[in-house]
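It is worth pausing here to work through a concrete case rather than discussing structure prediction in the abstract. The textbook approach is simple: state the sequence, then state the predicted structure, then interpret. We follow exactly that order.
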Amino acid sequence: MAGDGRRRGRLPLSLRRDAVAWERQRPTWRDARPALIAGALKRAQARPSGNWYVVGASRDLGGDRPLGRTVAGQEVVVWRDADGRVVAGPGVCPHLGAPLRDSPVRCGTLVCHWHGLSLNGGPFAGWEPFPAHDDGVLVWVRLDAVGGEEPLDAPVVPRRPVPARALTAVYAGTGVCEPEDVVANRLDPWHGAWFHPYSFVDLTVVETPEGAGEDAFAVDVSFKVAGRLVVPVRAVFTAPEPRTVVMHITEGEGVGSVVETHATPLGPDASGRPRTAVIEAVVAASDRRGFALARAAAPLLRPLVRTASARLWRDDLAYAERRWALRSTGRFPGA
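Step two, the predicted structure:
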């Protein structure tokens, strides 16, 4: 392909010489067959998660405040103990029900702000910890009562570049939908250049699960930079567990980079509608010498990456929410 990393130039950019207007690009609706997307979604839902749920970014933990999250109606609180390890447990104080997410952390101990009950991460006064895992980018909590699966000792963490040699950024957003609606959105790569023309052009799905040995969608696509300047890559989408879809860059600039999309159910809103958190991790890597400068500038670049993710998810959450609204009223036309 044009962006093959084996024939890269000095700069990662290419010039679109035969740019096609948005309305003149080839329609993809015949290729994006509902049964194909539904089949990929069904297989993803059948894979084991071990009851692990992503609750936030590793970088968000530390200091004197815990991370609070509601997962499928279960209040969860997460913080780092005195040794820097992630600990997690119920977010309801066992004494009189105080919201522990609002309590401070002092020297690795969570101190309830109502009556001073102190938790160091071990069982105490009726409070029992949940298994927790920090993979260096994201924090996971295992909720066996919520998931109902056979527990796994660790979550299914996708293959990714070593965080210490990568630029990482994590975006979080919330939509009125269920996790399957988020996963279905990511398993529909055909919508990219139509729905997100500000970011993607020249998109072609070159492999689907029907024609590949791996249960994956392979896509040739160009990321827009400015005007006719683009970065062409091949991206492969897989779903390693029910609530995760991963995009791996396999050819072109940034080979090995990943974008992980994790969908965590939160529980119903005031109207009884389901709410789902989208927690997306970008783990970018490159063997170009200039990439070391990008890593050094990570504190400045992370907000830009999160802003780009937020723009895409403004649209994709609308897709997921629309899908749920139609499903919940029996009007969804997909298989």
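Step three, interpretation. The radius of gyration is 21 Å. Confidence is low (pLDDT under 50) at residues 1-8.
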